[in-house]
Design brief:
single chain; 55 residues; alpha+beta; 3 helices
Length: 55
């Protein structure tokens, strides 16, 4: 999925946005952090972007 999303961004093709959660991020942390991102970001903030969560 990440490669597909990055390909679309490079090609300037529209997409709603993608959140990437890397394997090295603890699952519990991802479960806590993703809802915060969803609540704080609008659809327009995410449009045509790949957001890599490494916190």
């Amino acid at each position: 999925m990440p490669n597909f999303a990055y390909d679309r961004v490079r090609a300037s093709e529209p997409m709603p946005g993608v959140f990437l959660v890397r394997d090295r991020m603890p699952k519990g942390q991802a479960i806590e952090q993703l809802p915060l991102a969803v609540d704080c970001l609008s659809a327009e903030d995410c449009k045509d972007q790949v957001m890599d969560f490494l916190f």
